[in-house]
Amino acid sequence: MDEHTLAEVERAGTQFNAVTAMTVDRANALTAESVERRDSGQPPRRLEGIPFAIKDVIDLVGYPTTMGSNVRSDAPAANSAPVVDRLEAAGAIPVAKTNCQEYSYGILGDESAFGRVVNPVDAALCTAGSSSGSAALVAAGVVPLALGTDTAGSVRVPAACQGVLGFKPTFGVVPVDGVFPLSQSFDTVGLFASDLGVLTAAFDVIAGAGSGDGRGSSAHTIDVSLFADDGDRARDLLKSVPELTITSANGPALDELLDDLAPIYDYIRLYEAFEVHRDLFAERAADYQPGVAKKVEAGRGLEQAEYRTQLDALAELRERSLSVFGGTDLLLTPAIDGPVVRWDEIDSGTAAKFMRYSMPFNVLGWPALTIPLPGAGAGEGPQAVQLVGRPGSDRDLLAFASRLG
């Protein structure tokens, strides 16, 4: 990796408080390997020489995984997460570990042992979380690609608030080994990018050949259902696709489904997160960030029998959801409920508004892509929509997104 790129990442990392560690040694070693391959006449790999950043809940060999927390070991990781290995094997080069909400537990991005990340679009605007630092480095233009994690919107919501692409694949398609968990029933490794081609190539790499194949929606008339249509800009996005049928997704079946989602998500997430943190929290509760400690504590005392009941309800809900939209190929929703809020405007309802349109698709396990909208007026923050596909249709979703104006 050239010195200029590393210097720019470090500069932006400092300016936006987005970096927990520069991974210069790893970057230099892999750059030397890339140069050697080129000089020996080997063809370039899929992501040859592309710098990427890694949310600091994901292991990179030789570097500590801090989780944005004071409650951690600073021993370097013995192995990298498979998603990192796969990107490196395709020629991508890790340049930084990124700041995040402590243990990924929170959608606002307001609590990290390193302090909160600054939004490159406007420092007064909330970055959202939990993968705030990865979004910021892409938004700042110093890396074209970054890894994050998404349990209730923690890739897509920061992407919306910082004006970049953010993709959550189908649940289970991308390995989560070597990633510190929040709630294993919903955790997904996701991607930030400034260019859809780079994001698509990176998804192909981390998902592996043959996974995420969909129904081939590009081969027939595509049915896109608009949910809570957010004005003309969302419809303008669809004008470049001629073979398109637009319908409304509102209806009793959908309303019932959405009503059923939240309590299932809340119980399972609270139970699983407490089990993850049980031992650490017993020893070091006072060292957690205050809001994160409250979230962990909220899972204490939940019953395993009820947890298993909720897992059964989750499986039934995921099965039932497949029939709700009939022949619809894709959904288009707002990315968040309302505008990007300022840090000084956050209130008790902000988190729910941020997750309003993202969390349901973690519960269902469907792939979803946040797409920034052009043409925000003076004084407006970033605006974005969310494109959602059926489970397993990741590549169809990304292919359709590549055709949007």
UniProtKB/TrEMBL annotation:
InterPro entries, A to Z: Amidase, Amidase_dom, AS_sf
Domain Amidase: start-end pairs: 5-213, 275-398
Source organism superkingdom: Bacteria
Cited Pfam families: Amidase
List the PANTHER family hit by this protein, alphabetically: AMIDASE AMID-RELATED, TRANSAMIDASE
* Name under which the protein is recorded: Amidohydrolase
| Species | Brevibacterium sediminis
